[in-house]
Amino acid sequence: MDGMVGSAAAPDTPVHVALHTSDVDEARAFCRKLFYGPLEVTPVGDLSGFAFDGDVVMLGSVTVGKISYGSDIHVNIADLETAYHVLAPLTGTLRSRHRGTTVLADATRAAVYRPVGAIDLDWPGDCRLMSVKVDRAALERELDATLDQRIVSPLLLGESFDMVDGPGRTWAALVRLLHSELCADDGLIRQPRMAARWRDMVVSGLALTVEHPYGVDEPAGLQGPRRPRTVKRALDAIHAEPWRQFTAGDLASSAGVGVRVLQEAFRQHVGMSPLAYLRRVRLDGVHAELSRSDAWQVNVSEVAYRWGFTHLGRFAGAYRDRYGVSPSQTLRERR
């Protein structure tokens, strides 16, 4: 492998990992480690041509890989849970089944996957593709901010989009450029501030490219109330520094209102108190970090402290309430 996923890497520090192998088990372990734990890769037919080629870059909430197997395979993935995903073939045609819909993805059309629902892929040997993983919280937060209203989670996204014309063409080109630049050692994107901006462009570009029902004409029952500026200011403060030890008074000051006014506005427009929302953002951050790490790379306590949790007992209880498992289980199961 080229490169290593390190726990000390800053969120905007690019990580590049590559693997070229004819060993099926090694290829399967590589994909599980960098994308999803519950992933099964099963060769179909003759294995003589099996030649896995994976070139993956990670940048905070975005993981982009150029992947091919060299021979026909079948891939099955359980619920993604913590991410949205796009498969954009460069060559060949991928047959994808997700949530009762079959998509034939090729160089003209990408397949899109929501966090809920198993994924079933028939992946021919001549198919080489860009595999793009976007953390669930990052995409939902981006669409929420773009629309300035509450959204349904997980997002009700379309199952595919066009990569020949319109926004899809631009987004696919951006992803390819991001990948090639992060694979190099001397590009401008290696500067942390530039890397963060490119990462944000990939997330915001996807939010604007993929089909969703959250526009002006969305169906009754999906539309959320528009959020007042005071709530948006507090939300922006939380997402800018989720690890900061905010009090209700701190958030109210950032919003320019009193504590009671902000709490009532949050209950009405967010569905929970400001501090409850802050805790959810922190928990999602810890969960995302543990989900993409190996047990030997990170320490649960260190990750929790980094995200602003100072009482580990309360953190562990809140984590189990939200995800149904302990933090250490998440770390073990995503190896």
What is this structure's SSE topology?
Elements lengths: L14 E7 L2 H11 L4 E5 L8 E8 L2 E7 L4 E5 L5 E9 L2 E5 L2 E5 L3 E5 L5 E5 L4 E8 H12 L12 E3 L3 H18 L8 H18 L19 H12 L7 H8 L3 H11 L4 H18 L8 H7 L5 H12 L3 H7 L2
GO molecular function, one term: DNA-binding transcription factor activity
Protein name: AraC family transcriptional regulator
Keywords: DNA-binding, Transcription, Transcription regulation
Portion of residues in beta strands equals 15-25%
Which residues sit in consecutive blocks of at least 5 with pLDDT less than 50? Answer: 1-10, 216-225
Strand order of the largest sheet: 1-3-4-11-6-9-12
Instruction: Tell me the name of the CATH homologous superfamily of the largest domain.
Output: Jelly Rolls
CATH class of the largest domain: Mainly Beta
User: Overall pLDDT, averaged?
Assistant: 84
The secondary-structure element order is EHEEEEEEEEEEHEHHHHHHHHH
Q: What's the total number of strands?
A: 12
Percent helix, as a range, is: 40-55%
Q: What is the total number of structural domains?
A: 2
- Number of helical stretches of at least 4 residues: 11
Structure classification: alpha+beta
Label the CATH architecture of the largest domain: Sandwich
Major sheet: size, sense and barrel closure?
7 strands, antiparallel
Alpha carbon gyration radius: 20 Å
What is the CATH topology assignment of the largest domain? Answer: Jelly Rolls
First-residue to last-residue Cα separation: 17 Å
Q: How would you describe the shape?
A: globular
GO molecular function: DNA-binding transcription factor activity; sequence-specific DNA binding
Keywords: DNA-binding, Transcription, Transcription regulation
Pfam families: AraC_binding_2 (PF14525), HTH_18 (PF12833)
Protein name: AraC family transcriptional regulator
